[in-house]
Amino acid sequence: MNTEHDWITTPVTVDILRGFLDVEPTAHGLLPHRLPARARRQIPDNQLAVAEAQPSGVRLAFRTRATTIELDTLPTKRVYRGFPAPADGVYDLLVDGRLAAQATVPGGNVRTITDMVTQSAELREGPAGTARFTGLPAREKDIEIWLPHTEITELIALRTDVPVEPARDSGRRVWLHHGSSISHGSNAAHPTAIWPALAAAQGEVELVNLGFAGSALLDPFTARAMRDTPADLISVKIGINVVNADVMRLRAFTPAVHGFLDTIREGHPTTPLLVVSPVLCPVQEDTPGPLAPDFDGGTLRFKATGDPAERAAGRLTLNVIRDELARIAEQRTADDPNLHYLDGRELYGEKDYAEFPLPDEVHPDPSGHRRIGENFARLVFGDGRPFVAEIGGPHRVRECWTRWVRPGPGWGRGRTGGPYRPALVHVALLQRP
User: Fold this and answer.
1) How far apart are CA 210 and CA 32, in angstroms?
2) In 3-state terms, what secondary structure has residue 141?
3) Three-state DSSP class for 58?
């Protein structure tokens, strides 16, 4: 820690956190989670357990005149045995919504993946460190610090040279999104450059990102978490992990999709709900999974290992899933006018692939993330699109938390730091004048 200032330490609490569903006190500080405790107890594998604890889209938000900010954290970094360690995760600092500075935290814990199929790993503990930002404008300003999207990050202490206060209500709608590793941010250069963050910035919404690398598998506990999370806009990007994990056949996939959507609708009966099919991924367009790593040529790539002839027996490919999702969406819209469907190839298709190929055959590079984010903003947040803002429309969900909800037994902590009980939030929405 630098000692040139008379530092003011502000406790890192839920009052200054955004984009999380739960927090866990640790021996070092506070660990944000993107699934609630009940869901975490039902997680069957290490891959999702790690993914939901990686804070993609989670950020600190506060208001201050500070010119120097320090954030102490304990990161847990992931490396693959036999491969060079990746660069340290990036912390993005935004001033009044614009990227103004970046920092990294060296050291920390190291989680070495010893088997890419089972995701078994060895953990080596390391020291905490500090992300330091200097030279910030000496005026009242809104600060956001976006945490590294692929590093588990325990928050220890926030220090500034002048006091801070929680960020004011932005007035923006809350967008709750669920998807796979691309939504999580695989291969993105920094946390505000993952495609959901780029789309949220262009759509002027507050992002809650439930993109889980390798783990968008229609898990019922994820659907229940979405059901119980207040949101103004909801999207679910379905398909790629179901294919590349080879976890089900068409017979199981169709009712699983219906069940996932039904559960979300229990808590959000009229919220705009967008179903998005997979983006283009040539290795799995017509070849079933499972996906396997391919190290030929000295770089990691992925290949599909299934037999295309087995599609007739119900094996899933991306094209099979797109056709079925389009059919399901068309069927459901007869009774659900607020449900919408988007073919993922409109976000990233053949022309995009020709311009920005997938480096490992599955995940886009930073330019690909930018293209997907731009396309999503244009196709979803644009005029006449599913998430277009309504002039004079209903109050935002977050305002209802304050207006309607009172603490009581069994209450949790809301995204703004206030108490909430999801079941009563939904009653409030129905009763609101």
Assistant:
1) 13
2) strand
3) coil
Token reading at 199: 């789309």
Q: Which residue in the block uniquely carries the two structure tokens 């060895």?
A: 122
- For 279, which DSSP code? P
Count of all residues that appear for the chain in the document: 433
Q: How far apart are CA 370 and CA 352, in angstroms?
A: 11
Please give the span between the terminal C-alpha atoms of the chain, in angstroms, as a whole number. 52
- E strand or H helix at 152: strand 152-160
Residue with tokens 């036999």: 82
| Residue 37: both structure tokens together | 């405790």
Do 137 and 67 contact (CB within 8 A), yes or no?
Answer: yes
Find, among 241, 247, 238, 205, the residue nearest to 344 by Cα.
238
> Which are the contacts of 116, defined by CB distance < 8 A and separation ≥ 6?
80, 293
Q: Which amino acid is at 55?
A: P
Predicted confidence pLDDT, tens digits, the chain (433 residues)? 445 568 999 999 999 999 999 999 999 999 999 999 999 999 999 999 999 999 999 999 999 999 999 999 999 998 877 777 788 999 999 999 999 999 999 999 998 887 766 777 788 899 999 999 999 999 999 999 999 999 999 999 999 999 999 999 889 999 999 999 999 999 999 999 999 999 999 999 999 999 999 999 999 999 999 999 999 999 999 999 999 999 999 999 999 999 999 999 999 999 999 999 999 999 999 999 999 888 776 678 999 999 999 999 999 999 999 999 999 999 999 999 999 999 999 999 999 999 999 999 999 999 999 999 999 999 999 888 999 876 444 444 433 332 223 233 333 333 333 333 333 333 333 322 2
pTM for the full predicted model: 0.89
Q: Which whole-number Å values give the CA distances from 410 to 174, 307, 403, 422, in the listed order?
A: 24, 50, 19, 11
Q: Is 192 helix (H, G, I), strand (E, B) or coil?
A: helix
Q: What angle do CA 78, 83, 88 make, to 5 degrees?
A: 40
